[in-house]
Amino acid sequence: MAEVNKVEVPAKYDLNAKWDACLDLGVRRFVYSSFAGAFTGLLLFRSPVTRWASVAFGAGIGIGSAYSDCSQKFNGSRSNLSPKFLKAAEE
């Protein structure tokens, strides 16, 4: 049998791995922050509307933080600071 030469894609360019990692991160953060919002809503609020608002707020925080991390994975590490400030921070 002839061996098939597989070309390994560097992790930097492997989109399948990045999508898998981002979906996993997004689902986990959504669920964990929703549970945290539900727990906080049960502790602090009496009204069902405010409890559901607490769950929605937690879910939004989870999705937002997952989006932020995934955008950094796809676009590379970016900073809003100018190179002058980045150089000073490294020293």
First-to-last CA distance: 56 Å
Measured by DSSP, the beta-strand proportion falls in: under 5%
Return the structural class: mainly alpha
Number of helices: 3
Give a short account of the largest sheet. none
Task: Evaluate the radius of gyration.
Answer: 20 Å
Average of pLDDT: 83
- Order of helix and strand elements from N to C terminus: HHH
Q: Per the principal axes of the C-alpha atoms, what is the gross shape? A: elongated
What is the number of E strands?
Answer: 0
* Unreliably modeled segments: none
The helix content, as a percent range, equals over 70%
Question: What does this protein look like?
Answer:
With 91 residues, the protein is mainly α. The chain has a domain at 16-75. Helix content is 73%, strand content 0%. The protein has helices spanning 15-44, 48-75, 83-90. The longest helix has 30 residues, at 15-44. It is elongated and about 65 Å long. 12% of the residues are buried.
Short description:
The chain is mainly α and 91 residues long. The chain contains three helices and no strands. Keywords: Membrane, Mitochondrion, Mitochondrion inner membrane, Transmembrane, Transmembrane helix.
Features:
91 residues, 3 helices, elongated
Please give the structural blueprint:
Blueprint: H1 15-44, H2 48-75, H3 83-90
